[in-house]
Amino acid sequence: MAKRRKPRPTGPPPAKSPKLQRIAEGTEQPRTVRRAGDEPRPPSMRGVVVRAVVIAVIYALFLMVALKEDPAVAGLVGLFGFALMIPLGMLLDRMRYRSQLKRWRQQRGIPEPTRAAREPAAGAADDTPAEDA
After folding, report:
1. What 8-state DSSP symbol labels residue 45?
2. How far apart are alpha carbons 89 and 42 in whole angstroms?
3. pLDDT given for residue 20 in this prediction
4. In a domain, 63, yes or no
5. Does 107 fall in a domain?
6. Is 62 a domain residue?
7. Which domain holds residue 72?
8. What is the mean pLDDT of each run of 10 residues along the chain (133 residues)?
9. How many angstroms from the chain centroid is the CA of residue 109?
10. Contact status, residue 55 vs residue 81, Cβ threshold 8 Å
């Protein structure tokens, strides 16, 4: 049996990405921060809003179909629920992220950052020297 040849590419050569060339030259920084593959994702407003929209629509449909509410009333209740779910969703996502990140760091032996490392010192923003009186 004859050995199969590798198929040759057809069509024009692949185009080079100008953005990737600028990143390689060092004139532009990549937009995303590289994370480890299993590192927890930080909370995002987009995820919270999408979740809130889905839940509000399902809730409004439930009110209209199962409880036979007026569509206007169901829409208003759904809108109120959407407005309520945005801050609560962000709060819950932050709590989830912090606990996942803490567990992830413990599993890898990465020390927890101290409070001083996260926040600037009280007098650090003031450049004037302290005077002794």
Report:
1. H
2. 13
3. 79
4. yes
5. yes
6. yes
7. 45-112
8. 78 75 76 74 94 96 94 95 96 96 90 74 55 52
9. 24
10. yes
